[in-house]
TrEMBL record:
One Pfam short name: Aldedh
InterPro entries according to UniProt: Ald_DH/histidinol_DH, Ald_DH_C, Ald_DH_CS_CYS, Ald_DH_CS_GLU, Ald_DH_N, Aldehyde_DH_dom
Organism of derivation: Sphingobacterium wenxiniae
Aldehyde dehydrogenase domain residues: 7-460
Stated name of the protein: Acyl-CoA reductase
Family: Belongs to the aldehyde dehydrogenase family.
Highest taxon listed in the record's lineage: Bacteria
Amino acid sequence: MLLYTMQDNSTLVIKNPANDEIIATLPKETEAGLQTILQNLRQGQKNWSQRTVQDRLDCIVKFGELILENKQELAAILTQETGKPITQSLNEIQGAQNRIVHLQANAIQWLSEESLVETGPTLEKIVYEPLGVIANISAWNFPYNVGFNVFLYALVAGNAVLYKPSEYAALTGLQFEKYLHEAGIPTDVFRCVIGDGRLGQQILEAPMDGYFFTGSYATGLHIAKAVAHKLVPLQLELGGKDALYVSDDVVDVKQAAISAAEGAFYNNGQSCCAVERIYVSDKIYEQFVADFVTEVKSYVVGDPTDIKTFIGPLTRQPQTALLNEQVADALDKGAQLKLGGKEIAGQGNFYYPTVLIECDNRMKVMQEESFGPIIGIQKVSSDEEAIACMQDTEYGLTAAVFSANEQRAMRILKEMNTGTVYWNCCDRVSPNVPWSGRKKSGLGATLSIQGIRAFVQPKAYHLRKL
Ligand code: NAP
């Protein structure tokens, strides 16, 4: 059974993943409609880019205020269409505001022209010009965070944005459009278009000035190939198989287990930077596993609209088959199931929080992105073994070490071929530092100065007065 089905070729039927009820039927954007929108955006961008950065920033700040004023309703929409527990929906909406604070503090400085040679016969400076009309094809799992990382930064930099939310977060995408327009962003500068992957495909074929994608490696690779001939900027924020190593010197094993479990199970494990595999020193392994299982057992699983719920339904029903396959493969190769391992019977896409121990890197659960409430735990006997296991992956998003010894942790983190590393924390994104993936986890960076410069092109001026 598909969670979201195309009722006919012109509408998108949206179902609540907690109870399979239809919550909306949305008209899909047509190919002709898309062409008109793009022509309008092309025109709108010219005027938008003439406005000052401060002026554009003021609109973004107003947008942030409107989002906060309406956050209860917006959280309810997010929970209804993705199944995200309501407290986590509220956290996401509140947390994403830090992108706006970050832009307020830095955008003017980072988008201003830079004079590099101010004396002598030839003056030299850099001017940062917007790219033009960019496409933002986005994911459903954290639509506020990953959406804001792209469209807010792109807009402040003077671009027009064609935003295609995932079909699993389409209602939230429409709310972004509503409040951006209400905040003063012209209707021909930001547009949200509704549709499934076929609409995404049409966007790839359209004349865009840049592609900014958040989603899976498979779709990211497809996009990279499809737009390569255009030679326009391409940014890919993709999946991960993020490792966490718990060394034998952690001061508080129980606290390490609680933090690791939260990193693995927050948002039902549907985070790009969720902890996806855990390596634990053999000296503390038994205690860590016991504390970890106790913690996961304490999670309230069920109705995502209940403020006590920590684990709601999976957003996408087909993910349960992948999780079942990972469990079967792990058990076949010698893992032990400590908790869960199957769907919860009844309505909705519920899956028991699942803990597998005695895992090793031959298992799919330690190699392939799970994107669900499942974790594999492996015993290691040295830092060297942990480093080798953590590095044995096709992905490169994040890696974490829990250790009381900073030097020891830094030595391990230096070895990691990932865009982000964590010491005594995990599953964390900050606008102050770049967010980027290596290998199959992506290309380019959002957030920080890199994240804003991604939406401009430098023009070099050589100026000689005669
Ligand atoms: P997905 O299936 O790859 O879809 C992502 C977007 O691409 C959706 O809007 C989707 O539309 C669209 N799409 C599908 N086929 C397309 C095509 N042929 N051409 C153009 N666009 C197309 O990924 P997802 O399930 O939404 O997101 C989960 C993945 O995103 C995970 O791998 C996760 O790790 C990754 N992620 C990464 C980050 C990061 O910052 N690195 C953040 C969040 C998520 P429809 O949904 O309408 O089909």
